[in-house]
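Retro notes (design track)

What went well: tokenization of the new backbones is finally stable.
What didn't: we kept losing track of which sequence belonged to which structure.
Fix going forward: every design gets posted as structure first, then sequence, in one message. First example under the new rule, 329 residues:
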């Protein structure tokens, strides 16, 4: 059987980072060190994470006609991602984030979404071929809500599993929530979507059930070091986290969503898919940086072997070939 197909509709942004002794005051100029340019954007990260796990990934996005856009395309070529539906915008640059990090690890960030803000529902519908045979359609909220809603609508029309990772969070109309098969918020994002304060002390299951009442089919809420909570209309299941030494948690959420999407694309049941996603997300915290931390097949298999665990049947094939969905848990 062919490798699972996943369509990701989302963002790309270059991250420009520099270290300073302290964060500057208004009007002040400081000398910095360690300038670097990193790949970023939740959509892009999740597309790369899915491809590294063996899926055939089509990415629908907008970038500028500039050096940062060229940098993104080189990444996708190296990772084997289909970019036929990555649109080059004439009127806006590739998205960028400017990040200053002080000696204590505090940071300040300014983001210009650039071409990401120009991704439209029309772009999604014009990229219809990107959804051919896709088992899963995955999107986030670093693009306009109309584009994310179009992605969910296109996935639903193609009988794909639709996954919305609602970050950065914002209130959403019922029209998009009703198109979501699986919502993957963290706890604060879930509260905002349920109409609560992001810091309000409220049982996560209660919040998830409110989201289901608003139209979402199933909620997979990430709980950080406590793992994840699966809530459906009739059940609630807690999946514990891995015991890992965290170095950098930045890419964990994107790795989690990639693992979830790939497992579901292979026909795995939701609980087993979340268990696999906990592994991919847990491994991501053991390395610094986002793209370097997204695990590939060899790293996943090594984790299972080192811990005397059996990997899922659908995943335990020769690492030299892409994932085949021949045997499913």
């Amino acid at each position: 059987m062919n490798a699972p197909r996943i369509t990701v509709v989302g963002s790309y942004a270059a991250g420009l980072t520099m270290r300073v002794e302290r964060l500057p005051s208004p009007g002040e100029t400081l000398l910095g060190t360690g300038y670097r340019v990193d790949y970023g954007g939740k959509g892009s990260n999740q597309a790369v994470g899915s491809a590294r796990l063996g899926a055939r990934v089509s990415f629908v996005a907008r970038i500028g006609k500039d050096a940062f856009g060229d940098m993104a395309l080189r990444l996708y070529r190296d990772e084997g991602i289909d970019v036929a539906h990555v649109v080059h915008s004439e009127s806006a640059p590739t998205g960028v984030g400017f990040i200053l990090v002080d000696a204590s690890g505090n940071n300040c960030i300014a983001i210009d979404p650039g071409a990401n803000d120009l991704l439209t529902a029309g772009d999604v519908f014009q990229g219809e071929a990107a959804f051919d045979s896709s088992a899963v359609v995955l999107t986030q909220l670093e693009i306009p809500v109309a584009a994310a809603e179009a992605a969910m609508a296109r996935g639903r029309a193609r009988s794909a599993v639709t996954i919305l990772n609602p970050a950065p969070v914002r209130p959403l109309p019922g029209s998009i929530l009703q198109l979501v098969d699986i919502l993957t918020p963290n706890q604060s994002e879930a509260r905002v979507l349920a109409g609560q304060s992001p810091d309000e002390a409220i049982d996560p299951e209660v919040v998830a059930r409110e989201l289901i009442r608003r139209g979402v089919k199933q909620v997979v809420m990430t709980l950080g070091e406590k793992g994840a909570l699966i809530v459906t209309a009739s059940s609630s299941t807690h999946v514990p986290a891995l015991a890992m030494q965290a170095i950098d948690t930045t890419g964990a959420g994107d790795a989690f969503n990639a693992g979830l999407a790939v497992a579901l694309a292979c026909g795995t049941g939701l609980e087993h898919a979340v268990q696999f996603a906990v592994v991919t997300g847990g491994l991501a915290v053991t390395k610094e940086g986002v793209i370097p931390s997204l695990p590939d097949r060899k790293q996943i298999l090594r984790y299972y072997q080192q811990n005397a665990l059996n990997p899922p049947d659908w995943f335990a094939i020769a690492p030299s070939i892409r994932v085949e969905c021949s045997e499913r848990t």
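Added context from the reviewer: Residues 51 and 276 are 15 Å apart (CA to CA).
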